[in-house]
Amino acid sequence: MPIDATAPYDEQNIFAKILRGEIPNRTVYEDEFALAFHDIAPQAPVHILVIPKGRYVSWDDFTAKADDAEIAGFIRAVGRVAREAGLVEPGYRLLANIGVHGHQEVPHLHVHLFGGRSLGPMLAR
Ligand code: AMP
Prior knowledge:
Blueprint: H1 14-19, E1 27-30, E2 34-38, E3 46-52, H2 59-65, H3 68-84, E4 93-95, E5 111-115
Antiparallel strand pairs: 1-2, 2-3, 3-5, 4-5
Residues 14, 25, 39-41, 49, 97, 103-106 line the site of adenosine monophosphate.
C-alpha cells in the first residue's frame, strides 16, 4: 500500500528497525549519514538501497528539513556506493519513489540503485 509522503515519521517502519539493528540486512556501506544494503527482493542483478540515518519520510521531507551536512553526506554516500559497486562505467539507474503516485511502500527515504544489465526504458508504458 503506497504511503502518504506528508505523514509523520513512523518509528516502526522497516528501515527504522534496520537502522536500530532490530532486523538484519545485507550492508554494503555505512557512515555517519547513510546506510546502504541489498534490496530483499532485487529487481535487477544489482539492487541496492541507500537510506539516510535521519528520520525522514521521503525525498520531500529530507530536502525540506535535513541540514546541509546530512544532505551532502547522503548524496556523497549514494555516489560512493555506486562507484564501489562498479556501476559507473556500465551505467545504472537511481530511483526514489515518493508518496502515492510514486508507489512508495516504506516510509523512510530510500534511493534505489539498479544496475548489472541494460535497464530499458525509464517507465513502463
Ligand atoms: P519503495 O516502493 O520505493 O518504497 O521500495 C521499498 C523497497 O524496500 C522494495 O524494493 C522492497 O523490496 C524493499 N524492502 C522491503 N523490506 C526490506 C528489507 N527488510 N530489507 C531490504 N529491502 C527491503
